[in-house]
Write a structure and sequence with these properties.
The chain contains 8 helices and no strands. The protein is mainly α. The radius of gyration is 18 Å and the shape is elongated.
Length: about 210
């Protein structure tokens, strides 16, 4: 028996609520005990991103670890985006196998499974590469690779969202369209912020090199 739209909505809400809870626990919240001296640095750095409030909310819990280090800040931003992308990828993959999807929903969902999965892979590579302690020409090559991968991950996320709007195939009231686009949009916002902080780290480091 096919799953109803109402049941699909419940599945989506449970999946994405779990993702949000997991993400919030991982990111932490700014409290007197963990604000540390890096709180103002995180806030100042986030002010230059596209979504500063989201940036601060998701990174302020790492202030003690970040301090005034742009590399750690950029790495944490990428890690937060990666965590969100992984959870969204899992939820989208699970939903894509539901018998309650209409034919018009199944196509974009299948595309999202592929491109969001690819986004996860690129963000994983970026986190690993940014952890390398190198300088000079090697640094320029490394940061260029990271910027390329994060930009490509953002393109993947936008491709998923745009797939639901292609030719107006899905009604604006589609439960699946609304839920999936909303979650992927959150991942895209996190990725956009991460890219901005990576770019800031690159500029700062290259300006200080001899």
């Amino acid at each position: 028996m096919e799953v109803s739209s109402a049941a699909l909505l419940i599945i989506l809400q449970i999946s994405f609520s779990f993702m949000i809870i997991t993400h919030c626990v991982a990111a932490g919240r700014l409290t007197p005990s963990n604000a540390g001296g890096g709180g103002s640095y995180v806030e100042q750095s986030c002010s230059s991103t596209t979504y500063p409030q989201l940036c601060y909310e998701t990174l302020s819990g790492y202030s003690n670890e970040i301090q005034n280090n742009p590399r750690i800040l950029a790495t944490k931003a990428l890690s937060v985006a990666l965590s969100s992308a992984k959870s969204t990828s899992m939820a989208v993959r699970n939903l894509s196998g539901s018998r309650g999807l209409s034919r018009r929903e199944a196509g974009p969902m299948g595309d999202c499974v592929s491109v969001v999965g690819d986004s996860v892979f690129k963000l994983q590579k970026s986190v690993g590469e940014l952890g390398r302690d190198i300088s000079g020409t090697d640094f320029s090559m490394m940061i260029s690779d990271v910027q390329t991968w994060v930009s490509a991950a953002l393109t993947d996320e936008n491709t998923c969202m745009n797939g639901f709007d292609d030719g107006g195939k899905l009604e604006s009231t589609s439960t699946v369209k609304t839920a999936v686009r909303g979650q992927v949009l959150k991942v895209a916002h996190l990725t956009t912020n991460a890219l901005a902080l990576v770019n800031n780290f690159a500029s700062t480091t290259q300006a200080n090199q001899p």
